[in-house]
Amino acid sequence: MYPFSLYLPTRIFGGENCIDNLPAAINSYGKNILVVYGGGSVKKSGLLDRVRNLLKDRMITEFSGITPNPKISKVREGVKLCRDNKIDVILSLGGTSVLDCSKHIAAAVGYEGDPWDLVKDPSKIGNCLPIFAVMTMSATGSEYDGVGVTSNEETHEKLMIASDKLFPVASFLDPTYTYTVSDYQTASGAADIISHVFEQYFVLDGNPLTDGFAESMLRTVFQSTPVALKDHENYEARYNLMLASAFGCGGLLAIARAPSPWPCHAIEHELSAWYDITHGAGLAIIIPHWMRYSLNEKTAVKFAQYGYRVWNIQNSGDVNADANKAIEATADFFRKIGIPASLKELDSRITDEHFEKMADHISKAWWDLKLSFAPIDRDGIVTIL
Ligand code: NZQ
Ligand code: ZN
């Protein structure tokens, strides 16, 4: 069992109409609010109007057009807007792309240099503006972590900005705001949640408590996703997904476990950086290949444990065979929820042209994948891709 430190300062409000708590929660943080949103889903759903109404006694500046895989150019634009309007607080309405862009802006407002510097050197992060988040998708866990992910269009890099100062002050999880999420984004979000659990669960040295948290989260997502896809307005299923999303990345699943370098995320971020693909869909394609690559005599027991406890696979006495069944059950799940089966099918532009460059970049800019569940070297990254 490993030592650990856990810091989770965000207040989470959950349930229908929990957004009614927003005015009181934001109250002491200032009058001038930057309301950030994406391509318009929050206008269609009525969320933006509701927020305007709830905050009618404040000065609101709107900043829209944040795209999936948010770009550093948009962060720069947001920083200028904050300075010009003397913004006190940032309120993110939408999925994580909006929230991560908000986090990066919050960190960069007080920094004189270029916002991309803060990705490369987090010690440059000083005071950050307070962030509030109303979530409309279940996927990344950004609502309960201190991480943002930003893409640099010029350098083909997609990297994290991370600091304890970037936890939202409060996040609002109303499942009804996720009713309008498309099937594709619902499935991709589920795959992302699953991957966050896998990245922490599949280590050689875990512990029973967090194994249990992880297995419970996995069962919840495997059961709730098909329900939410069939019946978009199923409150229970949507709520389950929101909860599983929130607890995926903040560190709870990693306490006292061996550290993991999150190999599937390393590889997916390279693909998004080059091809702007949907994060969760990319992960769902990578995961089964990573699992098959990682199966060996040391790791088979854990893959089999996952199969017994999450998929109710019967113990056949052959650990390797049971591990394989668990891996194929996972691949089958992703196919059934409608994720394309290969990178080529996901995006016809993807060939092996940049795979070597991606592997080199991971070696330079990410944690060491040789410390993964099964060690992955440069050639291993290319093999998985
Ligand atoms: O822009 P709008 O119109 O809002 O549409 C969005 C967007 O097109 C749409 N959407 C969101 N809520 C909706 C909705 N459409 C209809 N109804 C709703 N209620 O969904 C599309 C995708 O949104 P996005 O925010 O990009 O999705 P997601 O929340 O999955 O975020 C993905 C980003 O988060 C990063 C990913 O790499 C990617 O950049 N991640 C962030 C992490 C973190 N901060 O901790 C960790 C993750 O591992 C991940 O890397
Ligand atoms: Zn993720």
Automatic annotation (TrEMBL):
Its cofactor is Fe cation. GO terms for molecular function: alcohol dehydrogenase (NADP+) activity; butanol dehydrogenase (NAD+) activity; metal ion binding; methylglyoxal reductase (NADPH) (acetol producing) activity. PROSITE patterns: ADH_IRON_2. GO terms for cellular component: cytosol. CDD domains: BDH (cd08187). Keywords: Oxidoreductase. Residues 9-175 form the Alcohol dehydrogenase iron-type/glycerol dehydrogenase GldA domain. It comes from the Bacteria. Residues 186-385 form the Fe-containing alcohol dehydrogenase-like C-terminal domain. InterPro entries: ADH_Fe/GldA (IPR001670), ADH_Fe_C (IPR056798), ADH_Fe_CS (IPR018211), BDH-like (IPR044731). PANTHER family: ALCOHOL DEHYDROGENASE YQHD (PTHR43633:SF1). Belongs to the iron-containing alcohol dehydrogenase family. This is Uncharacterized protein. It comes from Succinivibrio dextrinosolvens.
